[in-house]
Structures are given as structure tokens and as C-alpha cells.
Specification:
Helix content: 25-40%
Order of helices and strands: HHHHEHHEEHEEHHEEHE
Strand content: 5-15%
Shape: elongated
Number of strands: 8
Largest sheet: 2 strands, antiparallel
Radius of gyration: 27 Å
């Protein structure tokens, strides 16, 4: 019996000793947590997407409480969350422009030519390895849905061979931007109603030979914009969104309709 009782006593004593030591250590080495961190964390949506630049919502909450991040640092939560966080921090919420992702390509199956028929893995990165993908335009959307798979908010669909983003569902987490091997997905202001949906730097002649809706560098948009909101470089027109007033003149003048416009359409339409 002694051979059984003594080991039990020794193990019980060691367990009690370690428990006391751990209890004391937890008090000695404990770190005080700012109660604001927990309050802020509860106000955040919990997407943990990392779009704020911090490691998840916990990281952002700690940074805001420490004054290292703005109260409107959560892209997903937008203005409502910013107002809650600002109230916790005792400051005024800063008005911010809401951004959403947009695919800068309209070269679907009916508008863009193909170099070959791709029957491989449905992943844009895999297809891109094969001579830049099946699209004749090396800047075109490959339509395999890699961005769709990366989106946790079901904001992306594949229609006619290209990705379409529903701006009402988009939370600007940038997951699709990181996933796209072509680099043709960018953030644009939510209120923006005219967008140059082309990223090609090819000459106008080459663009015409590959896609019927690409920017051909005619600069009609540059010449007709009343706000001088256009920049033209590397054979491509780009909009300065801070200057643009969404008048739609550029979209009307664009001969290839490379400038997409939602003017006159349902505001909830997909980008």
C-alpha cells in the first residue's frame, strides 16, 4: 500500500505547489488591459479581414485604444462603427469616403478575343502562368474566379467570363485585390459613377485587335472633361476621383465604352 500512497501524496503535493506558483506568477506578470480595448473590440464587426492593416480586429482595437490607429480604421464597419468607436474614445468621428472594389475590365467572352482554350485548374494564377492566360489582352480578366473564392462576403460573381463585383456587398477588405494575378482590381469611391474599366497599356491599334471595349488612347475623355479630372499616361486614361463630379460626359464621348457609367441606371447595379 505504501508503494501506492506515497507517490499519490508526492504527486498531489507537487500539483498543489505548481498551482500556487502559477497563481502567484499570473498576478506578478499580469498585464493590465485597457477596458476601452474590450469595448472597441465589441463594436468592431469581427471580420478579421486585415484590411485595416492590423492583425485582425483585436489588433485594431488595441491600436485605436493606444492612439495608433484612427477611430474610422475599420473599412468593413464603415461610418456606423466609426461613430461607435469615436464615442468610446471620446472624440468626433471623422467622415470618410467609402471605397469598394471594382474590376477594371469589361472584356467578357463577347468582347475580348482568346489565344487558346483553357481547360486547366479553375484558378487565375494557374492560368496566368500559361503565356499570361487565354485572353489575347494580357491585361484582361481571366474569369476563373480566384477573386470570388477569396471573397468572404459573396460580393463577386463570374458573368460572361469576367468577374463582377456587387458594390453593395463589398466591404473593401482587399482580399480580391491580393488574389488577382493581373492586378486589375482596385478600390474606387462608392459614390463614383464613372470608371475607366480598362488597365491596358497597349497601343490603341493593338487594343482594337484584342478587345472591342478597351481604352484605345484617343483621349476624347481628357479633351471633353470639364473638370480636368483625367490623367493620360502609358496609353491609358485614368480618372482623378477627387476632381470627378460624375457628369458622365467622358462615358458619352468614349468610342469604345471603356468608361463604364452607372448614370441613369439602378444605383444598386453591380460594378
Amino acid at each position: 500500500m505504501n508503494g501506492i500512497i506515497y507517490p499519490i501524496i508526492v504527486l498531489g503535493g507537487l500539483g498543489l505547489l505548481f498551482g500556487v506558483v502559477l497563481s502567484l506568477a499570473s498576478k506578478v506578470f499580469s498585464v493590465e488591459v485597457d477596458p476601452k480595448v474590450e469595448e472597441i473590440r465589441k463594436s468592431l464587426p469581427g471580420a478579421n479581414c486585415g484590411a485595416c492593416g492590423f492583425p485582425g480586429c483585436d489588433g485594431l482595437a488595441a491600436a485605436i485604444a493606444a492612439g495608433k490607429a484612427p477611430v474610422n480604421g475599420c473599412n468593413v464597419g464603415g461610418k456606423p462603427v466609426a461613430e461607435k468607436v469615436a464615442d468610446i474614445m471620446g472624440v468626433n468621428a471623422v467622415d470618410t469616403v467609402r471605397y469598394v472594389a471594382a474590376v477594371l475590365c469589361q472584356g467578357d467572352c463577347s468582347k475580348a478575343k482568346e489565344k487558346y482554350v483553357y481547360n486547366g485548374i479553375k484558378d487565375c494564377r494557374a492560368q496566368n502562368i500559361l503565356a499570361g492566360g487565354s485572353k489575347s489582352c494580357s491585361y484582361g480578366c481571366l474569369g476563373c474566379g480566384t477573386c470570388k473564392d477569396a471573397c468572404e462576403f459573396n460580393a463577386i460573381s463570374i458573368v460572361g467570363g469576367i468577374a463582377i463585383i456587387d458594390k453593395e456587398k463589398c466591404v473593401s477588405c482587399k482580399a480580391c485585390i491580393d488574389a488577382c494575378p493581373k492586378g486589375i482590381i482596385e478600390l474606387v469611391p462608392y459614390e463614383q459613377e464613372v470608371i475607366v474599366k480598362c488597365k491596358s497599356n497597349d497601343s490603341g491599334k493593338m487594343v482594337r485587335s484584342k478587345c472591342s471595349t478597351g481604352c484605345i488612347g484617343c483621349q476624347m475623355c481628357v479633351k471633353n472633361c470639364p473638370q480636368d479630372a483625367f490623367i493620360f499616361e502609358n496609353n491609358l486614361a485614368k480618372i482623378n476621383y477627387e476632381k470627378c463630379i460624375n457628369c458622365g460626359i467622358c462615358a458619352e464621348k468614349c468610342p469604345t465604352k471603356a468608361i463604364w457609367s452607372s448614370l441613369g441606371k439602378d444605383k444598386a447595379a453591380n460594378q
